[in-house]
Amino acid sequence: MNTRKHPEQIDLLPYIAKWLLLAAVVAALAGSASAFFLFALEWATAWRETHPWLIWLLPLAGFAVGWVYLRFGKSVEAGNNLLIDEIHDPKKVIPLRMAPLVLGGTIVSHLFGASVGREGTAVQMGGALADQLTHALRLPQQQRRLLIMAGISAGFASVFGTPLAGAIFGLEVLAIGRMRYDAILPCFIAAIIADQVGLWWGVQHTHYVVSQIPAITLWGLAAVLAAGMVFGLAGMLFANATHGLSDFMKKRIAYAPLRPFIGGAVVAIAVWTVGTQRYIGLGIPVIVEAFQHPLSWTDFFGKAAFTLTSLGTGFKGGEVTPLFYIGATLGNALAPLLQLPFSTLAALGFVAVFAGAANTPIASTVMAIELFGPAIGPYAAIACVISYLFSGHTGIYRAQRVGHAKHRQVPEGMKLGEVKTYREDSTRG
């Protein structure tokens, strides 16, 4: 029997005040770290573009990053997967060294010409910085989970300028088909404030213009549904190829620094062979082009090949911005076939390939609305959901759990990295 005479909302006020304060601190740390990272990334990109000979030093840069992680970063090498594992199965505070290691490794990777992204860096910095508070404040494990999730949301939101998508990403990325609503307050507060912190520091995010969004018609919906299938398969193939190359390199080359050394040599020779730096770095200019005019079919193949080579051999950064590039250029290539505007399909590919590869259809749909406007929302929702379904039980984050299987039966709680082995064992059995 409840003997309290005051409304339960009164008891809620201290809880809200506590998480407003904690989330604001996490946001300030993550937003500032992301701002510094973005400014450093801008400098590295500009320096590389004006000194193209730096690409020939990429093998040495890869070796250096690999050696530093071998010597000082074994405990944090799992990156985003470590954050997801610690939220599901808390063990110990994430070492603070994760933040400077991934920051330095990503800047070096971009400076010398690897094809990597930036979300992994921002998310890892946000999660690692947030987790330091759990140690300082001696928070229990349940509250520690929420704080790390807030750090993930803050990092994602501040690096892309999408606070709502960032908040939902932190809630959605942990498990397929399930979100943790106990973290909804800290994730949203941290994401919104972190985005504002970045803007206060002077961060300017890329503006993408969707020049034409057609009215909703039966053909338009059917075309977007078909495009979503292609986007989902592209996300699945990218994730599987990247993991496959990483596993192959680890199996064949025992000394870790040699893996990015070899990958760097392959990328450098490939850049010299194709005669362009179009497929290295973030590739933001090419993404913008995809919204403006027809591009070559080779663009998404080229970016995919350069990115999986870079990430699969051990360079640091992230997968998301390269996935934006792959999706936008793939959508651009599909536009004439599906009789939809280039800018519309580029925008849908931008978010839907990411939705399939990361298994985050809701965050990706919200991101489309934040970046391209509310009119694209219905099309984006269909493309992202279909892509999510068609990518199967695979993804760029192997530590993701299966909360609710997409279609074929997969045990609840299983890591995505274990699904393939489980199915092989089931088939043999």
Automatic annotation (TrEMBL):
It is a multi-pass membrane protein. InterPro entries: Cl-channel_core (IPR014743), ClC (IPR001807), ClC-type_chloride_channel (IPR050368). Pfam families: Voltage_CLC (PF00654). It comes from the Bacteria. Its main location: membrane. Keywords: Membrane, Transmembrane, Transmembrane helix. It is found in: Membrane. GO terms for molecular function: chloride transmembrane transporter activity. This is Voltage-gated chloride channel.
